[in-house]
Amino acid sequence: MASIRSRNNKLLFDFTYKGIRCREQTILVDNKLNRSRLNVILNNIEAEMRLGRFVFKKHFPSSPRCSYFAEIDEKTEDAKNNSVNTEEQKLVTNIPTFYEFTSEWLDENKIQWKLSHYKNVSMIFERYLIPHFGNQALDEITRPQIIKYRASISEPKRLGRVKKLGNDWINHVMTPLRGILNEAAIRYDFPTPFVNIKALKVEKTPIEPFSLAEVQLVLSKVRKDYKNYYTVRFFTGMRTAEIDGLKWKYVNFDRSEILIQETIVDGYVETPKTSASYRSIQLSQPVSDALRRQFKLTGQQEYVFCNNNGNPLDHRNITKRIWYPMLIEMNMKPRRPYQTRHTCATLWLAAGESPEWIAKQMGHSTTKMLFEVYSRYVPNNTRQDGSAFDLLIKQTQMDKTGDSVYE
User: What pTM value is reported for the model?
Assistant: First the structure.
């Protein structure tokens, strides 16, 4: 039976043709994505063999076995040239299969993507798109087929997965599918099938910020070696990748600021999330004090918060070992560490800080997020909506006798 095998960590084809066992080496390293790619090719080879259309030198032009199969290849090509059918007419257009174009498209787009995004998109092709569309010519993929595929991936199929995929993740899968089909349509001059397929509606995840009393309780109970870390998280609004990638060279005690210039994502140093994310965060007194304490511990290291080897913290490990056990011990509702960022925004708003200033501190390009999400968590000190405006009117719209000008 034909298979993909590994030799010295390089993949090879292992199949039998005309009674001869063929083991054809490739230059691809042994990983899931490359195995998926070669399995698509192997399926095509087996199909061509069954149809009597397999030409050995077409697939393995550098193989020493080409001379052995030369006569068979010549007869096969003669038979193909004398048989005109729809499939051959398609081959003349040189439109590749979905799998064949995938590698080219990923390589072309890699330059404009962060490494973490490239790895994520590659995983989507490997796990979802290539197994379903890999063997099809790009212009054979239809709009109904795409819609049916989108519906099918929401259902749990793998052993142990009982929950459906969320709409947000399904949209993530469909985004590179749309991108590759739209590019192929332009390049090979056929109408794109990805037409009027709107993204699925994604319900907004409610944010659950901590109150100031809860923040103070957390900081009083957290393990001492992580108190500085969570103080900075709660009172700067930094994203996880930003605080984990924070280096001492970006902390300026004289100017009382942190510069956000780099992040850490899956162990790789990357640029901040957006252009607005490059920013200066002003240090409050609790943050300044926490960083000065931390400097005594890790000031000789590159990263502000690091392990004993000086390497950046693994946020998944910290969340599992420190964050959730701490909340459970304090009988607090489990919340993601990212809620520290939401907490900071709501505390700034509650303190009466300027929305424009808060947006810059958070790395938002506008105040839209503040007014749409965070502002509803600001406590209403009047306890009656609109009463502050009524009070303003009463104070400024009186005539000299003290009577209202509106009466």
Answer: 0.65
